[in-house]
Design a protein that fits this description.
The chain contains eleven helices and twelve strands. The structure holds NADP nicotinamide-adenine-dinucleotide phosphate. The site of NADP nicotinamide-adenine-dinucleotide phosphate has 21 residues, from helix 1 and strand 7.
Length: 290
């Protein structure tokens, strides 16, 4: 039974392939990428396809039983639902039985700048549910790995970590934890028609910083920041990503402030074990940095 991972050259894709390595024969694992040179995983069947091409994706998915479709990244001017629809159309055409979609865990509303991003994922889920494919939706928590980078920068630059999250609580998981649950769902039966929040401990920004300080030996202080200052800062730090991404990332903290990431976890139902604690994942991050 062949399992394919699309967008396999990204952070999540690589991590899913790594976990599949221990759960599924590499010869029956397909990595679908736009550019094989960007794939670091070896021993798997590498096929080339862009989400923009139904024809190429159909060829890439021939003979595959289960597809793990990793959501396309936010790129200004890109219709991500159309890209995801292409992958589903190709999966149907290629005779794929099941599609597992990596979505996002949030219950935001139109009052936040995060809502459009959430809606793209919900619209994709709706297309998938009526696609005729057997489906599983995995709603991923926020990546701990990304925020840890900023806390590290704060540790080095003056000990203040600032964003608009305020007192809102959110669940963070490492990409590795999300990938473990994704790989387990891909290789295990009984998940058809299920929507799982892949979430864990819910913490405030101050609590996240407190635990990071303990694990990394920092003395970082959390301070809330206005939404306007956050957009300006993201534009300064990553001008190449553009205003859409600066607004989306700021919207993420708006949604956090409003409790839209404080959700029940279905991680254990998906992965067969509870998620790691925040403390344990921070220790994993420390071990990886050594
Ligand atoms: N939960 C969270 O906190 C969080 C955070 C960030 C992102 N996300 C979402 O989760 C997804 C996976 O995260 P990630 O960290 O793995 O992202 P990533 O490292 O940026 O990787 C994105 C992947 O998408 C591929 N890709 C981009 N456009 C494509 C297209 N048109 N057709 C086929 N593949 C395409 C890229 O291929 P190339 O290598 O060829 O560029 C790459 O493999 C993201 O795309 C985003 O939707 C979630």
């Amino acid at each position: 039974m062949s399992i394919a991972v699309t967008a396999a050259s990204g952070r999540l894709g690589h991590a899913v392939l790594a976990h599949l390595g221990g759960l599924h024969p590499p010869a029956d694992t397909v990595a679908v990428v736009r550019d094989p040179a960007r794939l670091r995983t070896t021993g798997v069947d590498v096929r080339r396809a862009d989400y923009a091409s139904v024809a190429d994706m159909t060829v890439a998915l021939r003979g595959v039983h289960t597809v793990v479709m990793i959501s396309a990244p936010v790129v200004s001017g890109t219709d991500r639902v159309a890209l995801h629809r292409n992958v589903m159309a190709a999966a149907r055409e290629a005779g794929v039985s099941r599609l597992v979609f990596s979505s996002i865990a949030s219950e935001s509303d139109e009052s936040t700048l995060y809502f459009p991003t959430q809606q793209i994922n919900r619209d994709t889920e709706a297309v998938l549910r009526s696609s005729g494919l057997a489906w599983t939706v995995l709603r991923n928590a926020l990546y701990l790995d990304l925020d840890i980078v900023h806390i590290f920068a704060a540790g080095a630059e003056g000990a203040v970590y600032s964003n608009p999250g305020g007192d809102g609580r959110a669940s963070y998981l490492t990409i590795d934890e999300l990938a473990y649950a994704t790989a387990k769902v891909a290789v295990t039966g009984g998940h058809e028609g299920k929507t799982y929040n892949l979430t864990g401990d819910c913490v405030s920004q101050a609590e996240l910083v407190r635990q990071a300080n303990e694990v990394f030996g920092f003395a970082v202080r959390y301070e809330p920041m206005s939404d306007e200052a956050s957009i300006e800062r993201f534009m300064r730090l990553m001008p190449h990503r553009g205003m859409d991404v600066a607004r989306m990332l700021t919207g993420c903290f708006q949604a956090m402030r409003k409790g839209h990431f404080d959700l029940p976890s279905h991680f254990e139902a998906a992965a067969g074990r509870p998620p790691k604690s925040l403390r344990a994942m921070l220790e994993d991050c420390r071990a990886r940095r050594r």
